[in-house]
Amino acid sequence: MAVTFEQVKAALDPEEPAYNKAAAALGAEALPHLAVLVAGDQMMLASKAAYLAGLIGTAKAVDVVQRAARSAHASVRVAAAAAAGKLSSADSGDVLIKLIDDGDIGVQKVALRAVPADAPSGALRARVQSLSIAKGQAPNRELALETMSRMKVSVADPTDAEPIPGAARKRAATTKRPAAKKAVKRKPR
């Protein structure tokens, strides 16, 4: 059964849509309709469409979220940031880098909170790190520090993450972090 525009719109019309149910029921067939809604002039519907695309999470969903990230409306870009947090780490990086640098502080905050803790791209990690050590009264500096503290260093390439310099390192060291697991030495066979 093909998914119609009316079915997608009906799933998003309630004030609080059942996003997970809609993502499961409509699937990737809804993405062309979600792209139309994201580009439309109804901000609330465009925001809901962007978030639903993030939950669907396919390669075509990434295109819909990226389109929402370029919206002229901050509320749609906020939804794009939240949706990017639902995408895989590999797919979310490009979207989140752009939204972390958005002119709207609310968009920046949601984007920083959406940064994946597991294996964010090197470019995304570097951008968050630069915000965490920004001089002056950077509005989201503390949130960037929190984001840095929850990011995991890649086991395959521990040099991928640079140490946090200076005062930022001291602040990051005082934030609560999960206890590290002890390495287990294996005997040679």
Account of the 3D structure:
By secondary structure, the chain is mostly helical. It has one domain: Alpha Horseshoe (Leucine-rich Repeat Variant), CATH 1.25.10. It has 11 helices and no strands. α4 runs parallel beside α6. The radius of gyration is 19 Å and the shape is globular. The N and C termini lie far apart (56 Å).
What attributes characterize this protein structure?
single chain; 189 residues; mainly alpha; Leucine-rich Repeat Variant
Summarize the structure.
The protein is an all-alpha fold and 189 residues long. The chain has helices at residues 5-12, 19-26, 31-39, 43-56, 59-69, 74-84, 89-100, 105-114, 122-132, 141-150, 166-174.
